[in-house]
Design goal:
By secondary structure, the chain is an alpha/beta fold. It contains 15 helices and 25 strands.
Length: about 550
């Protein structure tokens, strides 16, 4: 029986972020992207979410390489974690590999990973696969799409992209997409993030023009926040500041790291004598200063957050400061951003964040751009990727509106195997392990759904610890029960409730002793059940109850 090409999404479907897709044929396997997602509000204590790579670990001998489309966190963030489980070369463009190298250095893994740098137009042989790098436009430099030649046909993965005719690095290589379409494309896997938006995505050049308008005739200090990865935006800020005789200071770790890497690789060329150390801005007139900061998404530890809430060591928000938020809210971050904006207004700052100001454009293609890619590539099959279910369905609808038969559109889910031959492409019915792995501090995967459920329980209802000392000779009560609460009630103001809880526990102990029950697990369960029923009846709360028995 002839081998089939398997396309297996391990991330990036029915979610935003955590992008990872496996292509497998026979004894060869490659992985496209290796990203993270950021934790949701109910993921208490979780720092990052990475893909489950159990399937990769089981098939490590087949793995021929990781191919990375661009340097955003949702495409490179899990590289240091995944490469602890499996080993394979990582292929990317100059900036992408520069950012990955920074991550590997932080995790002390640089000497353990082979980074291979390529330019658009390069073709890389990886087992039975040939992977061609194709230049595309995005909100970070050096982004590429991949045309992957497989034994059953060509598969195109666009990565994140938009069509920007006035892009600094030149418009994406539409000619190559057309050439591939003329030769025949088996399947197109296309970015769905902006499929709900009509028309075209505006050019990054329009932001540069609007930034100039904000700087012109402003006699106050300017504080600007944007995505650290948007190097063209940073270059525009530096050039605009230089034009108006302002010095630029950078604050925020990710912004500083990005500027360092981009400057070393010549993706950013700061005008002479424009960049200054943050400590120097106090000695400069307000109308000669620009502070570029992290915090466009309202992150709690970001530089802008610390400025707004007066915990930044070097910058305080002052009345009259013009704060420019040159970014759009990632879904889920709206509340955090609003909180910062309100605090900035409270301190007397002028905040520029309205979409009407034109201070941000997306890096993702809108409907008309998606149609162009579909028209150029003319794929036999279409698989929408990178988006929640509504994005995938809308993208499938768009493909059908362009004449794609419904039976040739495949909407998959994480872990579901798509099998392709030269004439077919469909869900096989097979699945592989897939899902979310939580990173908490140095721990990877040791926080699971049970731990998260306990953390949620503690956050909502608090905790009660019941401590009792029993006699080693006859099991009688020696001292206690002592009631310790955290996050439940204030003990000093609820002494009657605490005493009633003690009496319930004593009754439980008496019951167990009278019944001849000496097993500690049973005694703990009895106390926990009786106390839980009492508390719910009297308070309508369900705190976590931890009985502790000591024998003396």
């Amino acid at each position: 029986m002839a081998e089939k090409l398997k396309i297996i999404p391990l991330g990036g479907l029915n979610e935003i972020g955590k992008n990872m897709t496996v292509l497998e044929y026979g004894k060869d396997m490659i992985v496209i992207d290796c990203g993270i997602a950021f934790p949701e509000e109910d993921m208490y204590g979780v720092d990052l979410v990475i893909p489950d790579v159990t399937y990769l670990a089981r098939n490590a001998k087949k793995l021929r390489g990781f191919f990375i489309t661009h340097g955003h966190e949702d495409h490179i963030g899990s590289v240091p974690y995944v490469l602890q489980a499996v080993s394979a070369p990582v292929h990317g463009t100059r900036l992408t590999n520069g950012l990955i190298r920074l991550k590997l250095e932080e995790h002390r893994m640089l000497d353990k990973v082979k980074l291979v740098t390529h330019a658009p137009g390069d073709v890389v042989k990886a087992g039975c696969f040939s992977v061609e790098f194709i230049h595309v436009n995005h909100s970070i430099a050096d982004a590429v799409a991949f045309a992957i030649t497989t034994p059953v046909g060509v598969v195109i993965m666009t990565g994140d992209f938009k069509i920007d005719p006035t892009a600094v690095e030149g418009m994406m290589d539409l000619t190559r997409f057309g050439e591939l379409g003329n030769k025949g494309v088996l399947a197109l896997l296309c970015d769905s993030t902006n499929v709900e938006r009509l028309g075209y995505t505006p050019s990054e050049q329009s932001v540069a023009d609007n930034l100039d308008r904000q700087f012109k005739n402003c006699d106050q200090r300017i504080i600007l926040t944007t995505f650290a990865s948007n190097l063209h935006r940073l270059q525009s800020v530096l050039q605009t500041a230089h034009r108006y005789g302002r010095k630029v200071a950078i604050t925020g770790r990710s912004m500083e790291n990005m500027l360092k890497v981009a400057t070393e690789l010549d993706y950013i060329k700061p005008p002479e004598n424009t960049l200054v150390d943050l400590a120097q801005i106090k000695s400069l007139p307000k109308n000669k200063v620009v502070v570029v900061s992290t915090g466009s998404q309202g992150e709690n530890m970001s530089a802008l957050y610390r400025m707004a809430f007066s915990s930044h060591k070097q910058v305080d928000i002052q009345p009259g400061d013009r704060v420019i938020i040159s970014a759009s809210a990632i879904p889920g971050n709206e509340k955090a951003i609003s909180r910062i904006i309100n605090e900035l207004y409270r301190k007397g700052a002028e905040v520029i964040y309205d979409k009407l100001e034109g201070l941000h454009v997306s890096g993702h293609a809108c409907q008309e751009e998606l149609k162009i890619i579909h028209a150029l590539t003319r794929p036999r099959y279409f698989i929408p990727v990178h988006g929640e279910q509504r994005h995938l369905q809308r993208h499938a609808q768009l493909a059908r509106s362009m004449g794609m038969p419904a039976k040739r559109v495949v909407i998959a889910d994480l872990g579901k195997v798509i099998e392709c031959t030269s004439r077919t492409c469909k869900l096989s019915g097979a699945t592989v392990p897939a899902g979310r792995v939580f990173v908490d501090g140095f721990g990877v995967g040791d926080v699971g759904s049970v731990v998260l459920r306990d953390r949620k329980h503690l956050a909502q209802d608090g905790m009660i610890v019941v401590c009792v000392n029993l006699s080693a000779e006859d099991g009688s009560l020696v001292s206690g029960p002592d009631i310790i609460t955290r996050g439940f009630v204030l003990v000093k103001e609820n002494e009657d409730l605490i005493e009633a809880m003690r009496m319930i526990c004593m009754d439980s102990l008496d019951y167990c002793r009278n019944k001849g029950i000496s097993d500690w697990a049973t005694i703990k369960s009895c106390m926990k059940n009786d106390l839980s029923a009492f508390l719910y009846k009297n308070t309508k709360r369900n705190p976590m109850i931890l009985p502790v028995i000591m024998e003396i």
